[in-house]
Amino acid sequence: MNEQDTLEFSRIEEFTIDCGDETLGFLDRLSRENGWTSDYSSRCMDEYKKFLFLASKSNTAVTPSDQVDQVWHLHLIYTQSYWNELCGKTLQKTIHHGPTQGGPAEKEKYWEQYQQTLDLYLEVFGEEPPSDIWPDVAERFQNVERFVRINRNDFLVARKPKATLVAALAIPLVVTACVKSGSSDNGLIIAAIIVSVLVIYILHRTVSDENKSNVKRSADIAISANTESTNTEGDVGCSGCGGCGGCG
Asked: Which domain holds residue 19?
């Protein structure tokens, strides 16, 4: 970054959302709504500010990671902070939130934009983005159509075990069953192990292929901030913002 860019980024880094006397601050709310630790929320906030800088400086559309997007979503409901303080005073340009319009072309567009954003991050900041906040493209868009908003008072939420893990746990069970059945045929036990390993391999390949397919066909929720639809000086447009930029 040149000297001017460094000054502009410093202004973004110093930007704060809270007034200082809130019982529930922005990072507290971010942690609560996403199930994140305070430290992780703080790191995501730092990456959000980097994303804002990329969005304000890039001549092409940029797309955030899901984690950065969650920070952006929450900030957007702090309307005075976002539109007046951030866009109006700090950035001195508007950054609109633009969700996908759906369809194959949109999916391909956001796939490419996210990779370009990762490349731009490396170019501007001189380092790879943290992978636990900025995953690669395949992971970023994996199964995004399955995300839903739920109330944990009404639902019991538990992580689903991976199919390969279930199959791996089945191996000792199969062997134990053979032994307890009184079989002393080592060949039978070896055959059971081989079959179990084959099942693990097939399941692993099936899950991998399904994930790749989901990446290509997912109704992604990436957003963009760009200068392609600029109408006035200092204004940054968006692709398919759906009216989300006019509430300031």
From this structure: 3-141+222-236
Q: Report the C-alpha gap between 86 and 12 in whole angstroms.
A: 8
Q: Are residues 128 and 169 in the same domain?
A: no
Q: Is 8 helix (H, G, I), strand (E, B) or coil?
A: helix
Please give the model's pTM, rounded to 2 decimal places.
Answer: 0.67
Residue 134: CA count within 13 A, CB half-sphere: 22
pLDDT per residue as tens digits for the range 9-47: 999 999 999 988 888 999 999 999 999 999 999 999 999
Measure the CA–CA gap between 77 and 72, rounded to whole angstroms. 9
Q: Is 244 domain-assigned?
A: no
Residues 194 and 103 in one domain: no
pLDDT tens-digit profile of 76-101? Answer: 999 999 999 999 999 999 999 987 77
157 part of a folded domain: no
